[in-house]
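Pilot study result, target chain (311 residues):
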Amino acid sequence: MSLSQITDKNLPEKVSSLLTNILEENPMHKSFLKGALEHVNDNELAVLDRYLDFCESKGHDLAYMADSYLTIVGDTFQEQIYFMKHKQYRHKSYADVAGHVYHNKDYMDQYMYGLAITSFLWPNHLDMGRFFVETMPRDMKGKYLDIGPGHGYYLMKAMELGSFDKFLGIDISEASIKQTQAIIDHFKPEYKDRFTLKMIDFLEAEGLENGSYNAIVMGEVLEHVEQPDVFLKRIAELAADDAYIYVTTCINAPAVDHIYLWRSTDELEKMIESTGLKIKQPLRLPYEGKTLEESEAEDLSINVAYVLEKI
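Predicted structure:
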């Protein structure tokens, strides 16, 4: 299938090859990619192209990257079918998913690479990334904490945009720690003495001082844990009084490792505001083509991102 059938954009070489590989494996993804390419701009495509070049430098060809992306697409589709039938997520606890997701290196590698690509090709994911860029304070100094950096893209972006002195990333997955280390070593080698990565459960991490972090970012973590309110309370404890706090999650959004289900933005936001945090700037992204109210009524996926502050 020719890419000219879905876009008239002059795509960067590696992005073009990636999309060709995706369509060869899954021609049914054509209409989705057409809409995605209408949403992403040329600068974002150039960033994706550089990311793919980085992945190739690590020994992952574009066929592997396409397969990584389609692994997420396929797994999510299967979980959506389950959710539509049962109106609940398949798994309810960390133990249900840890073995075959977080501690499965081969799967987790593909999962993280695929997720990074969704940051550009899934419109709601792209919009959350844009929101992060728009709201990130440019002149704030001090300590920056990333809880669950995953593929490392947001942590790298914070280094590019902000003026923070020290960066700490905490993740439970060895694959995530290694990918984050690799992307920062590649794109931000000058930060090698200013960032630390720890493979540990956030709630068990030692040496984190209350009130000492000037920025705390937690992207796509809350839906993966059994007690998201406990994570939010811990963030409130660690944040400085004027800290920039950025959190994303999702509602009615089944995935292979999602275990905590919110049914509405109201339910989620009441939880957030019961933990010592206040919503300063919300971004609520309903299912494509639907309103927020329709998405909630029809149990359709909603993505959300919030800039929070301490109460």
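One observation from the pilot: The first strand starts at residue 143 and ends at 147. A full batch analysis is planned for the follow-on phase.
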